[in-house]
Design a protein that fits this description.
The structure holds two protein chains of two kinds. Chain A is 0% helix and 55% strand. By secondary structure, chain A is mostly beta strands. The chains are: A mainly beta, B mainly beta.
Chain lengths: 109, 116
């Protein structure tokens, strides 16, 4: 079983739409959670951390549900520039970073 | 913010040759660096965890004699792909864990390796 599972998509949405991604993880001892964004053939870039209390940064909201072992990312008012692959990352043992396979988002005019 | 420099960005080599990839943390000390491989349309797969001054820890299925990792200083880790073959062609990315910033992971820009 994979450590982290994501729906690969692609999610094709029009500009201005709201889109949500989920990610499930298998290790209940996981300590930290992040969403990263990766553009084609580039390194992943940190988008935001994920906390049980929720974390909002502009149009982006991340949420953690420890009981159900999933994290989510909500993007409101999608922009063309949001088109990318979004990776969820789960950390345990303080230095084991495990990536989901990524969810591809295409925002269309 | 923390910066990780990775070189080279692109490598094209003949089958059977060895390729070395460098990963440097430029403005922080990285006691731990990570090496990932990413095949097209797939996720980053952790290959090994590199600890300064000690042997790297390899993930299951990764050949340690083929992918040599050296982490000789707090700012430099190298990955050497020995006797590269076409199936080793991939995107290799290093990252470093800046403990000072709450376990966030900073990535190098990646190395696209093509073995002919």
């Amino acid at each position: 079983r994979k450590e982290v599972e994501q729906d690969p998509g692609p999610f094709n949405v029009p500009e201005g739409a709201t889109v949500a991604f989920n990610c499930t993880y298998s290790n209940s001892a996981s300590q930290s959670f992040f969403w990263y964004r990766q553009d084609c053939r580039k390194e992943p870039k940190l988008l935001m951390s994920v906390y049980s209390s929720g974390n909002e940064d502009g149009r982006f909201t991340a949420q953690l549900n420890r009981a159900s072992q999933y994290i989510s990312l909500l993007i409101r008012d999608s922009k063309l520039s949001d088109s990318a692959t979004y990776l969820c990352v789960v950390v345990y043992n303080f230095n084991k970073f495990y990536f989901g396979s990524g969810t591809k988002l295409n925002v269309k005019p | 913010g923390a910066v990780v420099s990775q070189h080279p960005s692109w490598v094209i080599c003949k089958s059977g040759t060895s390729v070395k990839i460098e990963c440097r943390s430029l403005d922080f000390q990285a006691t731990t660096m990570f090496w990932y491989r990413q095949f097209p349309k797939q996720s980053l797969m952790l290959m090994a965890t590199s600890n300064e001054g000690s042997k790297a820890t390899y993930e299951q299925g990764v050949e340690k004699d083929k992918f040599l990792i050296n982490h000789a200083s707090l700012t430099l880790s190298t990955l050497t792909v020995t006797s590269a073959h076409p199936e080793d062609s991939s995107f290799y990315i290093c990252s470093a864990d800046d403990r000072a910033t709450n376990e966030k992971l900073f990535f190098g820009s990646g190395t696209q390796l093509s073995v002919l």
